[in-house]
Amino acid sequence: MRILHTADWHLGKTLKGVDRTPEIAAALKEVLRIVRSERVELLVAAGDLFDRPRVPAEAEAVFLEFLMELKRLGVPLLGVAGNHDPRGRLAAWQGVFEVFGADLAAELRFFEEGGVREWGSLRAVLLPFLSERRLVKAAEVMEKDAGEHQQAYAERMRKVLKNLAQGFAPNTANLLVAHLTLEGANLKLGGGEFTFYVGNSYAVSPDALPPTAGYVALGHIHHQQRVSDAPVAYYSGSLVQLDFGEGEDAPRGAVLLELEPGKPARVLAEVQERWGKPLRTFRFALEELDRRIEELERFPGYAKLVLKGKPDPVLRERLLAENDHLLEVLFEFEGRAQGEAEAPEVLGVEEAYRRYHEATYGEPPEEALLSAFRRAMEEAEDAAASA
Ligand SMILES: [Mn+2]
Known about the structure:
Layout: E1 2-6, E2 14-15, E3 18-19, H1 21-37, E4 42-45, H2 57-73, E5 77-80, H3 87-92, H4 94-99, E6 102-105, E7 116-119, E8 122-127, H5 132-135, H6 138-143, H7 146-164, E9 173-179, E10 215-219, E11 225-228, E12 233-235, E13 253-258, E14 266-272, E15 279-285, H8 289-298, E16 302-308, H9 313-322, E17 326-332, H10 344-347, H11 349-361, H12 367-386
Parallel strand pairs: 1-4, 4-5, 5-6, 8-9, 9-10, 10-12, 15-16, 16-17
Antiparallel strand pairs: 1-13, 2-3, 7-8, 11-12, 13-14
Helix pairs in contact: 1-2
Bound molecules: manganese (II) ion.
């Protein structure tokens, strides 16, 4: 069976107010072109089809259009929910997926609960994203230290994978689709993923991958990479470069493979494409701005500019107004005012953080960053209160 493995579409993604959905839609058209030209029989989407819990109508329309085109081609879609996906929405659409010949697992189903899907000689095991919060009980978080906690996560993921692999037989074509962090994978994710889930903290050991799988289709890390030989396991990478922190030249795209009963997959092509616009961070000293701005102006993608020097909000506004494709201007300012900073006990922690950010970057923290900060503080306070 000829399979095309994709992941991390992130439909509905916006970057500093720019809607990336049209670029992702164009990339999905290219995916369909490959499905046709390579006579692909099954399309895999290993999570993060959508970028956020509230899906914009435009993103939904692109997704449904894609499903309809796949149905016309007679190609089923098999996938799992990633950490970004609207789980409830995907769960609600199960009946619709069936009509379209698609199967997208919104929640984990163990082997005993029908967690293994069969399509002819194919046995597919679908493992949606499981956060450490879902997998390790809150009570244990209080009792164990961070190291034990991570250990518990790794052990539980090992058990989940072992349970699901019961569905594989020696004479079937065995496919595992999962959205997770594999230990040792290149974690240069950039801002597209919440660092909460990365770092080496909550990762699955490669030796927890079932050896009976013919192919493991992974999502979550946006750079394409082969992460295991036995079983053959890949991150396909995202369709487009989603964030400035993700390498402009990093491989991404899809993996084309042949999966036959009782054999390890034969990878036919590591499809590495430059779909969507490139994103690049330019770093200039303030003094060299006039001389170097042309580099930025000529750049055909989306740009972020980091200026080393004293924050200048007027300059920032002018640069943003003059360059449509410039999405963000930050100042790196080392000579920040000393002595004025008041202790968090006086200001309150959030205000102290806000001032720190302003002094360091020349602007207040964004709302998303502030709310992440608040969440982290609340968790720390809860933990302290129950300690
Ligand atoms: Mn992702």
